[in-house]
Amino acid sequence: MVGQSAPLPATVSDPINSAILAVSEDRLSGFQIDPFGEIAARAGIDAQTVIDRVRAMLAAGTIRRVRQTLLATNLAAGALCAWEVLPARLDLAFDFMFRVDPFSGHVVIRTADAATAGSSYRLWTTLKVPQGFSLRKHAQWLAAQVGADRFRLMPAKMLFALGVGHVRRRGLPPGARAAEPARPLPAGIVELSTLEWRALTALKREFRSEELVRDLWRARAAEAGLDLDRFVAIARTLQERGVIGRFSTFLEHVKPTAGNERVTRYNALFHWAVPPGMEVAAGCEVGRHYAITHAYWREGGPEFRDVNIMAVAHGMEKNRVLEHKAAIDDHLREAGIGFSYTNVFWGGRSEIKPSEIAPDAYLAFCEAHGIDSDTMRAHGEEGASA
């Protein structure tokens, strides 16, 4: 049609998109009053171009969501959960966790060498339940729904790395790391007021394409029933209290995107069993490696030979991911941190969505599924295995 402009490029490899994504994936920490202006300034691209390109990539599926993330480990009881499910039920269980349960976030089918500990646990999810409710009781309910034989809940005791940044990680040499160890971030629940929950609920909802404008937060403030200044003040207070993560454009990193490109092909969950008392030191050394997107202190228990440090890395080539793992192993030894056992669980089928953490959402879920919400209340500390 005469006069119709050509569609904007939506591929990751486009140089303008690549420059934007190198910033927007995981470089905007905390609450940003003008996130697109900040991306523009750091990428050297004007703000309207940034908005137009993010819209195009979102429409094409290259970007799967745009949202303000939270440090949800400080807002809701959560854990990495490994599920032992019969092979015939594995895909059905995957679909249930992804489509039916709003409290299950990352849902991944993983494989490991059949001779290694925990290889029968094929389904892995992140699981969070809002404050006041029991993580273990919800996991038991899920196990009954999907026919899981056993599960292992592994809450994060300490966080060492959290930032996706697939574009900026391309081409990293094995062993590339920060000059200083990562800073450990303890997990601890922060209680919020009704007003803060109202603001936070509006703040965290992912953006639709038509919502991507320079004055990004005005409509969200109105959604929360607040004027913009009050909304921003609450957001900044929440950041000071340690519950705000980063503003991020999340790439579709498993499925092909525009131009049949993949951002990454291999997703590996690394396990190490380090001596008791060395967990924080080990996590800080693992977390300083640029290849690592997530690193935690979690207790794997006897099911996983008592591993206690876990980390995730992605890559286009399996051998390169293993080279990153070998470089981290060598670095731990050089730092005087031994490990009695290590393993790699490879990701296959996966879906990712934010876990719902609002208490009202849990009450609505219970009502929709015929669950007496009072029976799902938390009462003290609970065990990890079932």
Word description of this protein:
The chain is α+β, with helices and mostly antiparallel strands. The chain has a domain at 78-183 and 264-351: Alpha-Beta Plaits. The chain is 31% helix and 23% strand. The protein has helices at residues 15-24, 35-43, 47-60, 90-99, 135-146, 194-204, 218-223, 228-240, 279-287, 318-334, 359-368, and strands at 28-29, 63-70, 76-84, 104-111, 123-130, 150-154, 156-162, 185-186, 244-251, 266-273, 292-298, 309-315, 341-351. It has a 10-stranded antiparallel sheet. Strands 1-9-2 form a 3-stranded antiparallel sheet. Helix 2 crosses helix 3. The longest helix has 17 residues, at 318-334.
Structural descriptors:
single chain, 386 residues, alpha+beta, Alpha-Beta Plaits, 3-stranded antiparallel beta sheet, globular
**CA-to-CA gap between the ends?**
62 Å
Number of strands: 13
CATH architecture of the domain at 78-183 and 264-351: 2-Layer Sandwich
Helix/strand-derived class?
alpha+beta
| Low-confidence runs of at least 5 consecutive residues | none
Helicity range of the residues?
25-40%
Major sheet summary line: 10 strands, antiparallel
What order do the helices and strands come in, and which of them pair?
Layout: H1 15-24, E1 28-29, H2 35-43, H3 47-60, E2 63-70, E3 76-84, H4 90-99, E4 104-111, E5 123-130, H5 135-146, E6 150-154, E7 156-162, E8 185-186, H6 194-204, H7 218-223, H8 228-240, E9 244-251, E10 266-273, H9 279-287, E11 292-298, E12 309-315, H10 318-334, E13 341-351, H11 359-368
Antiparallel strand pairs: 1-9, 2-9, 3-5, 3-6, 4-5, 4-13, 7-8, 7-11, 10-12, 10-13, 11-12
Helix pairs in contact: 1-2, 2-3, 6-8
